[in-house]
Amino acid sequence: MMRGKDIPVKRRIVITGVGAVTPLGNSVEDTWKEICKGKSGIGKITKFDSTGYATKIAGELKNFDTRNFVSKKELRKFDDFIIYALAATEMALADSELDINEKNAERVGVIIGSAIGGLATLEKEKEAILRGGPRKMSPFAIPAVLANLGAGNVSIRFGAKGPINCTATACSSGTNAIGDAMRIISGNYADVMIAGGVDAAISPLCVAGFNAMRAISVRNDQPEKASRPFDRDRDGFVIGEGCGIVILEELTKALNRNAKIYAEVVGYGSTSDAYHMAIPPPGHEGAARCMSAALHDAHMSPGDIDYINAHGTSTPPNDLYETQAIKNVFGNHAAKLAVSSTKSMTGHLLGAAGGVEAIFSALSITEGIIPPTMNLDNPAPECDLDYVPHTARKKAIKTVMSNTFGFGGVNAVLILKKFDEH
Amino acid sequence: MKLEERVVEIIIEHLDVTKEECVPEASFIDDLGADSLDLVELIMEMEENFGLQISDEELEKIRTIQDVIDFLRSKGVT
From CA A74, how far away is CA A87, in angstroms rounded? Predict the structure, then answer.
């Protein structure tokens, strides 16, 4: 985890643009407004007929007009996850006012993580084979399914010719993407990285599959109450879809072009549980080690953190174990921290979670508002931190930790800090 | 509807081009912005619409809209 010794000056990395499409809105601005009001983006599934499925609710995008971002021809070729990645990136680049041109293109890279990729397309194409035989397979099936084609199509559309990758680390994908992108810039392999996460996984296979694991909420009669992190009556996460993209930029480059700066990315932790493919260990020591690693990376101590945007999925094991891990890492300071889960409003955007939550973390610094944890009516036993229940809180904050943990035992944590030139 | 019109209608829908662009000598790749994958998909759509199969060897020879029409006529489509 140590940086190379041959790098003489620490390159600092800042966020200069943000873009998102979420169940709460088709832009960062619209989404953030709803977050501050404590609105829920969860409703009945409309993307497929959920008759017979244990879960009939999800966080879908609403009134998202694909024509704003892709041509009719592209619409047939792309899975939704690719369209969401293009949309969020277009908005993030516009927000950053960065011009990608012949001179800088090779120093601009892309890492867009995805847990699920184009699984929904795969399901449809398999149906085409069953119906009409293998000759009925679309030539666009494979490029629509591969998870790295979010990053791939972004690179093609916007002309970014630097390092490219796709972190496929389940629900940590977006955070790993931003963390790994930060290291690429700090290692001087690029000056700008388009980074974040995307998923469009509200599909029959995903819903039935997560139901089979008993991982998602079946509170179908109260969609807006279904995602209730840290609450006694939580019964699983709610699948959401969307994309969150940040423009990461090396500080001097950002300053030279007078870019708007949201926050500095100062720490990244990445660890593995080495325990179980889908269940975290009690006390979640892997998550605790990850938070500690991010603090170490940022040269910070636990007392320096003001707010944690928690993984907070609303599954019984995660919320308890994440709370335990926070207490283990932060000790006495845990009681003074604000900890909230924006998944209570967006649902769990899987690979996109880390992307949109990094944006919420940055905005909590620039706007001085800590998002609430909604539906926390009766905190569960042992879940006794300050989860900012029900109402957003106005408070000036300097440092935010953003947690994400995923199947496979992956943990990824970012630390953002209010930008200060010195 | 005439065969030419049916073919052009499918091309307009699949390649997102205008009717004016769809002159008989228009090349799918050079004039209509298609790549090799677009062409495969377009031919699949023709197969579906006209109820026949086009082999890869036959596909190789198709460059222009007129090539498609000639091919379909040679298979007895009217």
Answer: 13
Q: Which of A208, A226, A256 is the last residue of a domain?
A: A256
Optimal mutation site among B16, B36, B46, interface A, most CBs of chain A within 10 A: B16
Q: Are residues A229 and A324 in the same domain?
A: no
A135 touches chain B (CB under 8 A): yes
Superfamily of segment(s) B3-74 = ACP-like (1.10.1200.10)
Q: Do A140 and B37 touch (CB under 8 A)?
A: yes
Reported as a single tens digit per residue, the pLDDT across B29-78 is 999 999 999 999 999 999 999 999 999 899 999 999 999 999 999 999 88
ipTM score: 0.88
pLDDT in tens, A299-335: 999 999 999 999 999 999 999 999 999 999 999 999 9
**Full DSSP string of A46-82:** -SS--TT-S--EEB---S--GGGTS-HHHHHH--HHH
Q: Please state whether beta strands A108-113 and A164-165 pair in parallel, antiparallel, or not at all (unpaired).
A: parallel
Phi, psi values for residue B2, rounded to 5° = -70, 155
**In terms of domains, do A26 and A65 share one?**
yes
State whether B14 and A140 contact (CB < 8 Å). no
C-alpha distances in angstroms, A71 versus A83, B24, B75? 10, 24, 34
Domain boundary, last residue among A256, A283, A318: A256
pTM: 0.96
Taking the CA of residue A139 and the nearest CA in chain B, the distance in Å comes to: 6
Put simply, the answer to whether A135 touches B53 (Cβ < 8 Å) is yes
Residues A180, A167: contact at Cβ < 8 Å? Answer: yes
Q: Are A310 and A353 in contact (CB under 8 A)?
A: no
Is A82 or A422 the better-scoring residue by pLDDT?
A82
- B35 carries an active-site annotation: yes
Amino acid at A270: S
- What is the dihedral angle through the alpha carbons of B68, B70, B74, B78, rounded to the nearest 10 degrees? 90
What is the domain range of residue A64? 14-256
